[in-house]
Amino acid sequence: MEPGQPVGARLTPQLLKARSGEFALDSILLLKLRGLGLADLGCLGECLGLEWLDVSGNKLTHLGPLAGLRQLAVLNVAGNRLASLEPLAACERLQSLNAAGNLLASPRQLQCLSGLQALEQLRLRDPLARLSNPLCAGPDYRAAVLGLLPRLRALDGQRVGIRGGDLDQLCRDLDGPPEPHATPTLPPPARPWVPSGYWEPAGPESRTGSILDEACRQFQDSLRECRELDLRAGDSLARAQRALGPALAPAAPGTF
């Protein structure tokens, strides 16, 4: 243990696996390590998949191992001895942070959080739990924090309202003339996909004419077939006569 480091427990792989029930540190998604007397987060930086972490009520003075937790979204470090949140600048997916009950003395110590695009909820004091930070006693504390972190939606459990500049811009937008809208392009006129009269029933005269035409065609086809049969029969008879000609010829005189 380094000189000057507060006496307390150190986080080990065995403790992490026992608390999470996981065999691999990078498989841990959620950890609740509240009130364990931890002074050193040890190997916590190896939990690369960690998304939710509660280390409140310990003896932590630094958050160095958290710098590698890029998936971390919810973090509770309330009730520790932190004077800096600098390692959290790398937690790009952090959405909710509870740092009440620490030693943060100036809004400048929150500058490291200004680059966190996803951060929406921040708690630096909790009256019910009687937790606070020295900076919360300063004049215009709330305005200073919101000026530094304009993306916050909630500070100390209170929803952030519309600020003056945003309200003025909203009023100007509402009072301004509506933007002209482009004339919508009309679709081409519909065209029928079947000829006109396709679905209308044919009249009696049309039906009679169709029947007669069909009968004539069938009669002509029958005549054509008869002619073809007659020609084929004649050809067959002629070939038979030629084949039997020598046998049918009369015998010469004097032959037996």
What is the element string, with H for helices and E for strands? EHEEEEEEHEEHH
Range of strand content: 5-15%
CATH superfamily of the largest domain: Ribonuclease Inhibitor
Nearest-integer average pLDDT: 82
Number of domains: 2
Biased composition (Pro residues): 177-192
Keywords: Leucine-rich repeat, Repeat
GO cellular component, one term: cytoplasm
Pfam families: LRR_9
Task: Write a structural description.
There is one protein chain. By secondary structure, the chain is an alpha/beta fold. It folds into two domains: 9-161, Ribonuclease Inhibitor (Leucine-rich repeat, LRR (right-handed beta-alpha superhelix), Alpha-Beta Horseshoe); 205-241. The chain is built from four helices and nine strands. The chain has helices spanning 13-20, 141-148, 164-175, 204-248, and strands at 9-10, 30-32, 38-40, 52-54, 74-76, 96-98, 121-123, 154-155, 158-159. The strands form two sheets. The protein has a seven-stranded mixed sheet with strand order 2-4-5-6-7-8-9.
Layout: helices, strands, pairs:
Blueprint: E1 9-10, H1 13-20, E2 30-32, E3 38-40, E4 52-54, E5 74-76, E6 96-98, E7 121-123, H2 141-148, E8 154-155, E9 158-159, H3 164-175, H4 204-248
Parallel strand pairs: 1-3, 2-4, 4-5, 5-6, 6-7, 7-8
Antiparallel strand pairs: 8-9
Keywords: Leucine-rich repeat, Repeat
Pfam families: LRR_9
Protein name: Leucine-rich repeat-containing protein 61
Entry summary:
By secondary structure, the chain is α/β, with parallel strands linked by helices.
Which structural traits does this protein have?
256 residues; alpha/beta; Leucine-rich repeat, LRR (right-handed beta-alpha superhelix); 2 domains; disordered N terminus; leucine-rich repeat; repeat; LRR_dom_sf
